[in-house]
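Students often ask what a holo structure prediction actually looks like on paper. The answer is less mysterious than it sounds. You provide the chain, you provide the ligand, and the output is a string of discrete structure tokens encoding the 3D arrangement of the protein together with protoporphyrin IX containing FE.
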Amino acid sequence: MAQSQSVLSLLTSPTVLPFFLLAVIYAVLKVLDRTDIPKIKNLPEIPGIPILGNLHQLGLNHAKVAQEWSKKYGPVFQVRMGNRRIIFANTFDSVKNLWITNQSALISRPMLHTFHTVVSSSEGFTIGTSPWDESCKVRRKAAATALNRPAVQSYMPIIDYEATKSLKEMLLDSTDGEVDLDPNAYFTRYALSTSLTLNYGIKIEGNVEDGMLKEITHVERIVSNFRSTSNNWADYVPLLRLKPGGTAKPQEYRKRRAVYMHKLLNMLKERIANGTDQPCISGNVLKDPEAKLTDDEVMSIGLTMVSAGLDTVPGNLIMCIAYLSSPHGQDIQKRALAEINKVYPNNDAWERCLHEEKVPYLTALVKETLRFWSVIPICLPRTNTKPIKWGDAVIPAGTSFYMNAYAAHYDDTHFKSPYDFNPDRYVADDSVDDAAASRGTPHYGYGAGSRMCIGSHLANRELYTAFLRLITAFEVLPPKDKKDEAIMDAMECNQYPTSLTLDPKPFKVGLRVRDRAVVDRWIQESEERTKHL
Ligand code: HEM
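The corresponding structure tokens follow.
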């Protein structure tokens, strides 16, 4: 006791105290400054500062800043985001090497504080946010089977119904081209209602003002921001988690999400009990005595289905429509219509597109949209379960990897004139210089490798059908008022550049119906075909 008192008085004596305090501060800084993975040898590192690392330098637009850094530091480099070491890959070939050549090692996902600990504390994780384990494997397999090519073909009546509903509403709301429209809400409903019908057999019955549509869209958008790799500094700097009230917003949105997720599942369970349910993915799992999925796993598939296509499908659709309204977009529409008419001279494309994808230029338009607009500029993060070699560097297991899909999509060593919107780059025609892009991996819009998007067949069919029907029904024109014009740049058009998925700034387009009588007939035929839904 006497000894510890004398140590205390020595430490607090005026000559020793300043040095003691400095030593304490140094020790605390050393602890706070530690990273999950030590500096990796033989891999360029972006110079940063203690504790924050490079977090502050990455600013509001990580994809752009990292793209700039890659010009000086090379395609792959390490950064420190607070206490995490992250590998950024920024070119087409470096992504291919890490994500595809090393796909068995790069199979897991890191956990981030805001999303995994706060937002997901009750309803669990989606498939796309789950680290790789037995449960993730089972859920991914169940969802992938329900979203494979033949399964998606059987869902085409739903896409027929939803595409018709949205285009009909746009036709009426634009009063035959007099009123310019923001296409966002129409295609958000298209994507969400399709996913809900597939998963729960429940569709959004109302128009674009529907309450459930608005609530799910708003909550999922905010939740997507909590998933963002750049939005939440508390994910990287643990000290910030102590900030009073810091988790209030994530918790509020967790609760709001829980309300509709449980409501949807309970509605389905009730319908199964009454024998009034429609065939659907969660229903199949709930009714299958062989299915070995727990209630939490069924909830996880539901969460995945609700959220996965909600920003991504409409983001691509509406930004392509934005482009079509531009002066160059007028030429693209003319070319697309000519190609459609060539394949379908009898005016039956509206119906035939449900069974086949026979217009290569439209398939190319879908691919170019996914590349050009890069709606997930920094792909969902990965972590490696085994060491990965990059040049002379060995990246240890457990390191986080961020794919800069935006930079890879605008990599001029892979794409000719990447800043031009040019569907022809994906038309398999040898006269086009980078037609090679149409073979192999065309783009990273759906990610790459072992945890690539499993909804890509569904999304491709949703995009192809909507584009074909839109272009055959309407001329997409610039808005009458210049201030309503969309911004034709994948980064500048984003109202929240820190969000995980592109959140387009509002804009409007004009829609002039090509032939009202023909479009009315197509709508009527679709409504007749899908009246059982
Ligand atoms: C145009 C629309 C879509 C885009 C651009 C898109 C994009 C992506 C991307 C970039 C990833 C991460 C892949 C990776 O890490 O390599 C992903 C994962 C995923 N997507 Fe999509 N997606 C779309 C639509 C959908 C739809 C409609 C569904 C299902 C209804 C879906 C289900 C999933 C799932 C389950 C994962 C996680 C896969 C895993 O972690 O193993 N996606 N998506």
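Residues 127-128, 140, 143, 147, 195, 304-305, 308-309, 312-313, 316, 375-376, 379-380, 382, 445-449, 451-455, 458-459 surround protoporphyrin IX containing FE (CB under 6 Å).
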